[in-house]
Amino acid sequence: MKKRLLILALGLVSLLTLAIATSVLAAASCATAAWCSSDQWGQTSQFTPFIMYNDVWGATTGQTIYANSASDWGVSANFPETSGVKSYPNASLDMSGKTLDTLGSCTSSFNTSPPSSGSWEVAYDIWVPSEVMIWMSQHGAVGPIASAWNSDGTPVAEATGVVVGGQTWNVYRGGSNVVSFVRTSNTNSGTVDILAVLNWIKSKGWITGTSNLASFQFGFEITSAPGGLTFSNNSYSINCGGRGGSGTTATNTPVRTSTTGPTATRSRTPTTGPTATRTNTPIPGATATRTSTPGSGSTCSPVTSTITAPFTFDGVGTFCWQSANLGSYVNSWNTNSVSINGVNVTNVYMAAGSFPAKINNNYYVSYNSSVAWGHFEAK
Questions:
Q1: How many Cβ atoms are within 10 Å of 258's Cβ, its own excluded?
Q2: Within-domain flag for 220
Q3: 21, 74, 95, 286: least surrounded by Cβ within 10 Å?
Q4: Do 84 and 170 share a domain, yes or no?
Q5: DSSP symbols for 177-235
Q6: pLDDT tens-place string over residues 171-197
Q7: Distance, CA of 253 to chain centre
Q8: What is the count of structural domains for the chain?
Q9: Which range marks the domain in which residue 370 is found?
Protein backbone atom coordinates (compact mmCIF):
# COMPACT_ATOMS: atom_id res chain seq x y z
CA MET A 1 0.00 0.00 0.00
CA LYS A 2 2.78 2.43 0.93
CA LYS A 3 4.51 1.67 -2.37
CA ARG A 4 1.31 2.42 -4.29
CA LEU A 5 0.82 5.69 -2.42
CA LEU A 6 4.43 6.63 -3.15
CA ILE A 7 3.98 5.92 -6.86
CA LEU A 8 0.76 7.95 -6.88
CA ALA A 9 2.45 10.84 -5.10
CA LEU A 10 5.39 10.79 -7.51
CA GLY A 11 2.95 10.80 -10.44
CA LEU A 12 1.11 13.80 -9.06
CA VAL A 13 4.38 15.62 -8.49
CA SER A 14 5.42 14.91 -12.09
CA LEU A 15 2.15 16.30 -13.44
CA LEU A 16 2.41 19.36 -11.23
CA THR A 17 6.01 19.91 -12.32
CA LEU A 18 5.00 19.69 -16.00
CA ALA A 19 2.13 22.13 -15.51
CA ILE A 20 4.41 24.59 -13.69
CA ALA A 21 7.08 24.24 -16.38
CA THR A 22 4.49 24.95 -19.07
CA SER A 23 3.28 28.04 -17.21
CA VAL A 24 6.86 29.25 -16.79
CA LEU A 25 7.52 28.71 -20.50
CA ALA A 26 4.40 30.66 -21.43
CA ALA A 27 5.40 33.48 -19.09
CA ALA A 28 8.93 33.54 -20.51
CA SER A 29 7.61 33.55 -24.08
CA CYS A 30 5.22 36.38 -23.25
CA ALA A 31 8.05 38.37 -21.68
CA THR A 32 9.91 38.53 -24.99
CA ALA A 33 7.03 38.49 -27.49
CA ALA A 34 5.71 41.53 -29.32
CA TRP A 35 2.18 40.39 -28.49
CA CYS A 36 0.79 37.95 -25.98
CA SER A 37 -2.71 37.07 -24.79
CA SER A 38 -4.36 34.52 -22.53
CA ASP A 39 -7.82 35.87 -23.28
CA GLN A 40 -10.30 33.43 -24.76
CA TRP A 41 -10.89 35.68 -27.77
CA GLY A 42 -7.52 37.49 -27.78
CA GLN A 43 -6.59 38.96 -31.15
CA THR A 44 -4.30 41.54 -32.73
CA SER A 45 -3.98 43.16 -36.16
CA GLN A 46 -0.48 44.56 -35.56
CA PHE A 47 1.13 42.02 -37.90
CA THR A 48 -0.26 43.44 -41.14
CA PRO A 49 -1.89 42.02 -43.22
CA PHE A 50 -2.64 39.19 -40.80
CA ILE A 51 -4.84 39.01 -37.73
CA MET A 52 -3.65 36.69 -34.98
CA TYR A 53 -6.33 34.91 -32.96
CA ASN A 54 -6.10 32.93 -29.72
CA ASP A 55 -9.56 31.50 -30.53
CA VAL A 56 -10.31 29.27 -27.53
CA TRP A 57 -13.77 28.61 -28.90
CA GLY A 58 -14.39 25.20 -27.29
CA ALA A 59 -13.27 26.15 -23.77
CA THR A 60 -12.96 29.34 -21.72
CA THR A 61 -9.37 29.20 -20.44
CA GLY A 62 -6.24 27.10 -20.78
CA GLN A 63 -4.25 28.71 -23.58
CA THR A 64 -1.76 31.55 -24.08
CA ILE A 65 -0.68 32.77 -27.49
CA TYR A 66 2.51 34.76 -28.08
CA ALA A 67 3.78 36.22 -31.35
CA ASN A 68 6.52 38.30 -32.89
CA SER A 69 4.95 38.05 -36.35
CA ALA A 70 2.58 35.83 -38.30
CA SER A 71 5.69 33.82 -39.15
CA ASP A 72 6.98 33.50 -35.59
CA TRP A 73 4.42 32.57 -32.97
CA GLY A 74 3.24 29.80 -30.70
CA VAL A 75 0.84 28.77 -27.97
CA SER A 76 1.06 27.08 -24.60
CA ALA A 77 -2.11 25.04 -24.09
CA ASN A 78 -3.39 22.95 -21.22
CA PHE A 79 -6.63 21.11 -22.04
CA PRO A 80 -7.87 17.78 -20.63
CA GLU A 81 -7.94 14.56 -22.67
CA THR A 82 -11.62 14.88 -23.58
CA SER A 83 -13.46 14.96 -26.90
CA GLY A 84 -14.35 18.14 -28.71
CA VAL A 85 -12.07 20.78 -30.20
CA LYS A 86 -10.96 23.34 -27.62
CA SER A 87 -9.16 25.94 -29.72
CA TYR A 88 -7.83 27.01 -33.08
CA PRO A 89 -5.06 29.59 -32.58
CA ASN A 90 -4.28 30.92 -36.03
CA ALA A 91 -2.93 33.55 -38.38
CA SER A 92 -5.78 34.82 -40.56
CA LEU A 93 -5.64 36.61 -43.92
CA ASP A 94 -8.68 38.50 -45.20
CA MET A 95 -9.51 37.41 -48.77
CA SER A 96 -12.88 39.17 -49.09
CA GLY A 97 -13.44 40.77 -52.48
CA LYS A 98 -11.75 37.85 -54.24
CA THR A 99 -13.33 34.80 -55.85
CA LEU A 100 -11.76 31.49 -56.77
CA ASP A 101 -11.97 32.37 -60.45
CA THR A 102 -10.12 35.67 -59.89
CA LEU A 103 -7.66 34.40 -57.30
CA GLY A 104 -4.73 33.61 -59.58
CA SER A 105 -1.94 31.70 -57.87
CA CYS A 106 -2.26 30.78 -54.19
CA THR A 107 0.52 28.98 -52.34
CA SER A 108 1.66 28.77 -48.74
CA SER A 109 4.74 27.49 -46.90
CA PHE A 110 5.05 26.60 -43.22
CA ASN A 111 7.36 25.10 -40.63
CA THR A 112 5.94 23.99 -37.28
CA SER A 113 7.01 22.18 -34.12
CA PRO A 114 3.94 20.50 -32.58
CA PRO A 115 4.18 18.29 -29.47
CA SER A 116 4.47 14.50 -29.56
CA SER A 117 1.44 13.99 -27.31
CA GLY A 118 -2.11 15.27 -27.02
CA SER A 119 -4.77 15.36 -29.74
CA TRP A 120 -4.47 18.00 -32.44
CA GLU A 121 -3.90 18.74 -36.10
CA VAL A 122 -1.87 21.37 -37.94
CA ALA A 123 -4.26 22.72 -40.53
CA TYR A 124 -5.30 25.42 -42.92
CA ASP A 125 -8.90 26.60 -42.63
CA ILE A 126 -9.98 28.12 -45.92
CA TRP A 127 -13.37 29.85 -46.23
CA VAL A 128 -14.68 29.93 -49.80
CA PRO A 129 -17.18 30.79 -48.15
CA SER A 130 -17.99 27.18 -47.12
CA GLU A 131 -15.19 25.55 -45.20
CA VAL A 132 -12.18 23.75 -46.66
CA MET A 133 -9.65 22.26 -44.27
CA ILE A 134 -6.17 21.14 -45.28
CA TRP A 135 -4.57 18.87 -42.67
CA MET A 136 -0.77 18.72 -42.78
CA SER A 137 -0.17 16.65 -39.65
CA GLN A 138 -2.22 15.15 -36.85
CA HIS A 139 -1.87 13.27 -33.58
CA GLY A 140 -4.21 11.53 -31.17
CA ALA A 141 -7.99 11.23 -31.19
CA VAL A 142 -8.90 13.58 -34.02
CA GLY A 143 -10.70 13.07 -37.31
CA PRO A 144 -12.23 15.11 -40.13
CA ILE A 145 -15.93 15.78 -40.56
CA ALA A 146 -17.41 13.09 -42.81
CA SER A 147 -20.75 11.92 -44.17
CA ALA A 148 -20.39 8.38 -42.79
CA TRP A 149 -18.23 6.28 -40.49
CA ASN A 150 -16.90 2.74 -40.60
CA SER A 151 -17.79 0.18 -37.94
CA ASP A 152 -14.49 0.92 -36.16
CA GLY A 153 -15.42 4.59 -35.87
CA THR A 154 -13.09 5.90 -38.57
CA PRO A 155 -14.51 8.41 -41.06
CA VAL A 156 -15.33 7.30 -44.60
CA ALA A 157 -13.41 9.21 -47.26
CA GLU A 158 -15.01 10.54 -50.44
CA ALA A 159 -11.73 9.81 -52.26
CA THR A 160 -8.39 8.27 -51.26
CA GLY A 161 -4.89 8.60 -52.63
CA VAL A 162 -5.71 11.82 -54.45
CA VAL A 163 -2.58 13.53 -55.81
CA VAL A 164 -3.03 17.31 -55.89
CA GLY A 165 -0.28 19.93 -55.84
CA GLY A 166 2.39 17.23 -55.71
CA GLN A 167 1.08 15.72 -52.47
CA THR A 168 -1.18 12.76 -51.68
CA TRP A 169 -4.42 13.23 -49.77
CA ASN A 170 -7.52 11.48 -48.52
CA VAL A 171 -10.57 13.68 -49.04
CA TYR A 172 -13.59 13.86 -46.73
CA ARG A 173 -16.86 15.76 -46.98
CA GLY A 174 -19.64 16.14 -44.44
CA GLY A 175 -21.66 18.49 -42.31
CA SER A 176 -22.63 21.65 -44.15
CA ASN A 177 -20.31 21.02 -47.12
CA VAL A 178 -17.12 20.91 -45.04
CA VAL A 179 -14.38 19.48 -47.28
CA SER A 180 -11.18 18.20 -45.64
CA PHE A 181 -7.97 17.35 -47.47
CA VAL A 182 -6.00 15.12 -45.08
CA ARG A 183 -2.40 14.40 -46.01
CA THR A 184 -1.69 10.65 -46.08
CA SER A 185 1.55 11.18 -44.13
CA ASN A 186 2.39 13.81 -41.53
CA THR A 187 4.76 16.64 -42.29
CA ASN A 188 5.83 19.52 -40.06
CA SER A 189 7.01 21.68 -42.94
CA GLY A 190 6.35 22.16 -46.62
CA THR A 191 4.57 24.12 -49.34
CA VAL A 192 0.91 23.80 -50.22
CA ASP A 193 -0.70 24.68 -53.54
CA ILE A 194 -3.98 25.96 -52.14
CA LEU A 195 -5.33 26.94 -55.56
CA ALA A 196 -4.85 23.38 -56.84
CA VAL A 197 -6.78 22.03 -53.85
CA LEU A 198 -9.64 24.49 -54.36
CA ASN A 199 -9.79 23.81 -58.11
CA TRP A 200 -10.00 20.05 -57.45
CA ILE A 201 -12.94 20.64 -55.11
CA LYS A 202 -14.54 22.94 -57.69
CA SER A 203 -14.19 20.20 -60.32
CA LYS A 204 -16.37 17.99 -58.11
CA GLY A 205 -19.09 20.65 -58.01
CA TRP A 206 -18.76 21.09 -54.23
CA ILE A 207 -17.82 24.77 -54.45
CA THR A 208 -18.18 27.43 -57.14
CA GLY A 209 -15.65 29.76 -58.67
CA THR A 210 -17.78 32.86 -58.26
CA SER A 211 -18.50 32.89 -54.52
CA ASN A 212 -16.86 35.64 -52.50
CA LEU A 213 -13.92 34.33 -50.47
CA ALA A 214 -13.53 35.06 -46.76
CA SER A 215 -10.60 34.31 -44.42
CA PHE A 216 -7.65 32.02 -45.16
CA GLN A 217 -6.25 30.76 -41.85
CA PHE A 218 -3.40 28.58 -40.64
CA GLY A 219 -2.84 27.23 -37.16
CA PHE A 220 -3.22 24.43 -34.63
CA GLU A 221 -6.62 22.87 -33.99
CA ILE A 222 -6.27 21.51 -30.46
CA THR A 223 -8.59 18.93 -28.92
CA SER A 224 -6.45 18.04 -25.91
CA ALA A 225 -3.15 19.12 -24.40
CA PRO A 226 -3.01 17.31 -21.05
CA GLY A 227 -0.48 18.59 -18.56
CA GLY A 228 0.40 21.56 -20.74
CA LEU A 229 1.90 21.42 -24.25
CA THR A 230 3.66 23.89 -26.52
CA PHE A 231 2.86 24.39 -30.22
CA SER A 232 5.36 26.47 -32.20
CA ASN A 233 5.06 28.05 -35.63
CA ASN A 234 8.64 28.63 -36.80
CA SER A 235 7.87 30.17 -40.19
CA TYR A 236 4.82 30.84 -42.34
CA SER A 237 4.00 32.63 -45.55
CA ILE A 238 1.01 32.74 -47.87
CA ASN A 239 0.65 34.49 -51.21
CA CYS A 240 -2.81 34.42 -52.75
CA GLY A 241 -4.18 36.78 -55.36
CA GLY A 242 -1.60 39.45 -54.55
CA ARG A 243 -2.28 39.31 -50.82
CA GLY A 244 -0.33 37.85 -47.92
CA GLY A 245 3.37 37.55 -47.24
CA SER A 246 4.90 36.43 -43.97
CA GLY A 247 3.60 39.20 -41.73
CA THR A 248 5.60 42.05 -40.28
CA THR A 249 7.56 42.12 -37.06
CA ALA A 250 5.97 44.45 -34.54
CA THR A 251 8.10 47.16 -33.00
CA ASN A 252 5.85 48.11 -30.13
CA THR A 253 6.47 47.21 -26.50
CA PRO A 254 5.39 43.67 -25.63
CA VAL A 255 1.92 43.71 -24.11
CA ARG A 256 -0.72 41.34 -22.88
CA THR A 257 -3.99 42.22 -24.50
CA SER A 258 -7.56 41.94 -23.39
CA THR A 259 -9.93 42.00 -26.31
CA THR A 260 -13.67 42.28 -26.22
CA GLY A 261 -16.26 41.01 -28.60
CA PRO A 262 -15.64 37.30 -29.07
CA THR A 263 -16.41 36.44 -32.60
CA ALA A 264 -14.99 33.12 -33.49
CA THR A 265 -16.92 30.08 -34.42
CA ARG A 266 -16.25 26.57 -35.35
CA SER A 267 -18.39 24.08 -37.12
CA ARG A 268 -16.99 26.37 -38.17
CA THR A 269 -18.59 29.47 -39.11
CA PRO A 270 -17.15 32.88 -38.73
CA THR A 271 -20.18 34.59 -37.33
CA THR A 272 -20.91 37.48 -35.10
CA GLY A 273 -21.75 36.23 -31.68
CA PRO A 274 -19.93 35.13 -28.65
CA THR A 275 -19.01 31.59 -29.21
CA ALA A 276 -17.78 28.97 -31.30
CA THR A 277 -18.49 26.19 -33.56
CA ARG A 278 -15.78 23.94 -34.69
CA THR A 279 -13.23 27.14 -36.13
CA ASN A 280 -13.70 30.18 -36.72
CA THR A 281 -12.48 33.58 -36.34
CA PRO A 282 -14.31 36.20 -38.28
CA ILE A 283 -12.57 38.67 -40.47
CA PRO A 284 -13.41 42.23 -41.45
CA GLY A 285 -15.68 42.37 -44.44
CA ALA A 286 -17.62 39.44 -45.74
CA THR A 287 -17.92 36.49 -43.41
CA ALA A 288 -18.68 32.91 -44.13
CA THR A 289 -21.81 31.61 -42.51
CA ARG A 290 -23.55 28.30 -42.38
CA THR A 291 -27.29 28.21 -42.85
CA SER A 292 -29.68 25.61 -41.56
CA THR A 293 -32.26 23.95 -43.73
CA PRO A 294 -35.81 24.77 -42.74
CA GLY A 295 -37.78 21.84 -41.45
CA SER A 296 -41.45 21.31 -40.82
CA GLY A 297 -41.46 22.70 -37.30
CA SER A 298 -42.01 19.23 -35.89
CA THR A 299 -41.13 17.66 -32.56
CA CYS A 300 -39.25 14.41 -32.02
CA SER A 301 -40.52 11.52 -29.95
CA PRO A 302 -40.41 9.80 -27.63
CA VAL A 303 -38.66 12.34 -25.42
CA THR A 304 -35.57 10.73 -23.91
CA SER A 305 -34.97 13.35 -21.24
CA THR A 306 -35.37 17.02 -20.41
CA ILE A 307 -32.24 19.18 -20.64
CA THR A 308 -31.32 22.80 -19.99
CA ALA A 309 -28.29 24.92 -20.87
CA PRO A 310 -25.47 24.56 -20.20
CA PHE A 311 -25.63 21.03 -21.58
CA THR A 312 -23.01 18.87 -23.32
CA PHE A 313 -23.25 15.36 -24.69
CA ASP A 314 -20.60 13.19 -26.35
CA GLY A 315 -21.26 9.73 -27.71
CA VAL A 316 -23.13 7.23 -29.84
CA GLY A 317 -26.90 6.97 -29.95
CA THR A 318 -30.25 8.40 -30.94
CA PHE A 319 -31.94 10.76 -28.53
CA CYS A 320 -34.82 13.21 -28.31
CA TRP A 321 -34.23 15.97 -25.79
CA GLN A 322 -36.84 18.47 -24.66
CA SER A 323 -35.64 21.87 -23.43
CA ALA A 324 -37.16 25.19 -22.42
CA ASN A 325 -33.71 26.82 -22.50
CA LEU A 326 -30.90 26.08 -24.97
CA GLY A 327 -28.79 29.05 -23.88
CA SER A 328 -27.07 31.45 -26.27
CA TYR A 329 -26.04 28.91 -28.91
CA VAL A 330 -25.98 25.27 -29.95
CA ASN A 331 -23.19 23.44 -31.75
CA SER A 332 -22.42 19.90 -32.88
CA TRP A 333 -19.87 17.86 -34.79
CA ASN A 334 -19.25 14.27 -35.89
CA THR A 335 -22.99 13.54 -35.88
CA ASN A 336 -25.23 11.93 -38.47
CA SER A 337 -28.07 14.34 -37.77
CA VAL A 338 -29.15 17.02 -35.32
CA SER A 339 -32.33 19.06 -35.57
CA ILE A 340 -34.22 21.55 -33.41
CA ASN A 341 -37.99 21.52 -33.90
CA GLY A 342 -37.43 20.00 -37.33
CA VAL A 343 -34.77 22.50 -38.42
CA ASN A 344 -31.55 20.83 -39.54
CA VAL A 345 -28.53 22.01 -37.53
CA THR A 346 -26.28 19.00 -38.17
CA ASN A 347 -22.64 19.77 -37.35
CA VAL A 348 -23.13 23.52 -37.37
CA TYR A 349 -23.15 26.40 -34.92
CA MET A 350 -26.41 28.30 -34.43
CA ALA A 351 -26.82 31.39 -32.26
CA ALA A 352 -29.95 31.82 -30.15
CA GLY A 353 -31.25 34.55 -32.44
CA SER A 354 -31.59 31.95 -35.23
CA PHE A 355 -33.35 29.28 -33.17
CA PRO A 356 -36.71 28.17 -34.59
CA ALA A 357 -39.87 29.12 -32.72
CA LYS A 358 -40.66 27.05 -29.64
CA ILE A 359 -43.36 24.42 -29.80
CA ASN A 360 -45.52 24.40 -26.68
CA ASN A 361 -42.85 26.56 -25.00
CA ASN A 362 -40.14 23.99 -25.69
CA TYR A 363 -37.39 23.06 -28.11
CA TYR A 364 -37.12 19.46 -29.25
CA VAL A 365 -33.59 18.37 -30.13
CA SER A 366 -33.19 15.22 -32.20
CA TYR A 367 -29.64 13.80 -32.04
CA ASN A 368 -28.03 10.85 -33.83
CA SER A 369 -24.37 9.85 -33.97
CA SER A 370 -22.68 6.56 -34.76
CA VAL A 371 -19.29 7.46 -33.28
CA ALA A 372 -18.08 7.97 -29.73
CA TRP A 373 -16.80 11.44 -30.57
CA GLY A 374 -20.16 12.70 -31.76
CA HIS A 375 -20.84 15.95 -29.91
CA PHE A 376 -23.71 18.29 -29.09
CA GLU A 377 -23.68 21.31 -26.82
CA ALA A 378 -26.12 24.01 -25.77
CA LYS A 379 -24.55 26.85 -23.80
A1: 10
A2: yes
A3: 21
A4: yes
A5: TEEEEEESS--SEEEEEHHHHHHHHHHTTSS-SSSBP-EEEEEEEEEEEEEEEEEEEEE
A6: 999 988 999 999 999 999 999 999 999
A7: 30
A8: 2
A9: 305-378
